[in-house]
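Protein record
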Amino acid sequence: MLTEILQDIHTVADISALNSLTLNDQDIVFVKDQHSGGIFVYKANLNVSPDQGRIIADTNNRIFIRLEQTALHPTWYGAIGDGVADDTSAIQSWFNHGGRILEGSYKVTDVNLILNLRITSGNGGLFYKNILYPAGNIVNQFIQLPVPSVFPTIHDAVEWLDIKRVVGSGGVDILIADGTYAINHPIQPKWLDGQLISIRGNESQPNRVILNLDNTNNNDCFLFTSGVGISWLNGFQIQGVNGWVSQGVWNTQCYGAGIRAVGGCNVKCGIAIMIDKVYYGIRSMQGSTIHANVSEYDGSQGGGVKVTNAGDVAFHAYNAALECMGAEAYYTGHTSEGLGFGFCAEAGGMIICEYAKAVGNEKAGFYALSNGTTWAHGVDSNNNQYGVLAWGGSVECNSLGKAITTIYQNKSHGIYATKRGFIGANGALASENSGCGFIANTSSFIDMTDTVSTKNTLHGYSAETNATLDGDNARAENNVINGFNAQSGAVLQGQNLSANSNQANGYYARTGGCMFTIGMAGINNGNFSSPQPQIETDTFKIENMGSFISLSP
């Protein structure tokens, strides 16, 4: 029986020999060619167009249907697959006729075929300029995706990876060449292996890779969501357009971010990043973590990621974590909305911004509210409205090693805690601020240990409205009003306090405010102390509308 079946099959060497056969309808033909060969059935009465792969025609226009029930194979369309022959035309034909599962490796010279691999699978791939681009997952391969020489846009390179996995020892670098790129909608990865993927521009001269972000429709430049992350993002300048009008003035619905992570993402950035005129510079939200730290500290503030002319916040942690040590925030503001913060932790978020700089921001340089925590040790904050502000949140701004926390020339208070806020400011220097150097009010607390407050327009240190200033070895000098001030039911306490050359009083308590101190000292004040300090006895005096200064702890 088998012998009879085989005797009924016509055999030819290759497709070009089909026209030599005399055939009847439904005859079987075996084409032996190792590339485009296979088993075909002759259809005498079928009127279809050949694709020269699954459906072929001989020179007599007779139609043959390939019998194999497998995925389309490039060799059916003439591909050789030896890595030497140019298979561009065959692969294009394979794609055109629905090829999606690629086996084998083929050399091509049309870059558009590489882009088509975004929608393919299989163990094969395409060689383009001696680089193998896989059709399916990236397995034990390190590959670079150049923009724009292979992938025309950053979006193209990112989206090419959306349905691919990076497996084993593999990895991917998206490399952005010097140039200017229009970003009209967010670059939003959907990959699953971000820990093995990076996006790199010019990491030594980031201003040579310009990403012009259209701020309209609240566009972000880089947007990470739903746990998607990245191992490295660095080397570019994000330049906002169509949102920022002038200093402190913004068009509506232009409230996006340069880099935003929402929903449990982990994003690691380098410090060769500049962001200008985008409403939020870097924004971590809803359980995400963004890292953008200087790798080494040389004793000076700054040197990290730089954000200028943001709207609400330059560096923002909202119910999330953001590390941006050494970062710099300049001229943030949205005047009509009362916004403009350099570094902000909000809604239980935490921002670690040690050694950072905040300059010229319309509100606060460093800010924490609604149970947020800002860790701002060793920072420089000047020419903002407030240098450091804790509004119901916590700010730690102690000096750290060589880095002295320096809060100066701000337009209101230097270090300010309010609405049950907390500030730890050990070793900080507050000078030449247009309000108080240190002030706590409305049930807030400031640790003023080893601090100096000098040349401020109001008091050096002021505890007001049921708040507390506490700490030893604090020094107030050359302030316009009082060195140390307590009022409205507040408490100021500490040992070895020193008040020198303050224009009004070295120490002053009134309207229910009180001081507890041991070792208070001072010279050249307008008046040393009011009320006069006293040791608590049965005849303890209450003066200045219910206040006192006690030399007992």
Observations:
- Confidence is low (pLDDT under 50) at residues 1-6.
